């Protein structure tokens, strides 16, 4: 492959990643600011109630689901980190005349470390919840996960 073709393809690839990152960081809730703790608790409660209803959970299972929701919420907050505006972080990567590879890699490394640090607790909570389900509930959960929108979606 000729050098100019490689450079062109790499440029297009880099630009598509940058645009994708900016698009992902610009979802509508950032325009209104991050979700308040009260709103987050309300949404979380609705999701837990919906899953509990669909799987017909008992009190112990619902408790394990709440532990899982806590772990997921903690992991989400950790991934968000101290940045008040994740979109600004991504914009800083493309603010200059050249793509800031070092800054982009640092962002990826930070998120990866955070994910690796919190994953064992999330996996443990998910395993405890799943293992507490009976065979019928496990099958319902697998069926819900097979749907296009996923088992935790609302709508």
Description:
This protein is mainly alpha-helical. It has helices at about 5-25, 35-55, 60-80, 85-95, 100-130, 135-145. Helix 1 runs antiparallel to helix 4. It is elongated and about 60 Å long.
What layout of secondary structure does this protein have?
Blueprint: H1 3-25, H2 37-55, H3 59-80, H4 86-93, H5 101-132, H6 135-146
Helix pairs in contact: 1-4, 3-5, 4-5
The tally of helices reads 6
Largest sheet: none
Strand segment tally: 0
| General form | elongated
Specify Rg, calculated over alpha carbons.
20 Å
Round the mean pLDDT to the nearest integer and report it.
Answer: 76
State the order of secondary-structure elements, H for helix, E for strand. Answer: HHHHHH
The separation of the N and C termini measures: 48 Å
- In terms of DSSP E residues, the strand content is under 5%
User: Ranges with pLDDT <50 over ≥5 residues?
Assistant: 25-31
The quaternary organization reads as single chain
Helical proportion, percent range: over 70%
Structural class label: mainly alpha
Question: Key terms for this structure?
Answer:
155 residues; mainly alpha; 75% helix
In short:
With 155 residues, the protein is an all-alpha fold. The protein is 75% helix and 0% strand.
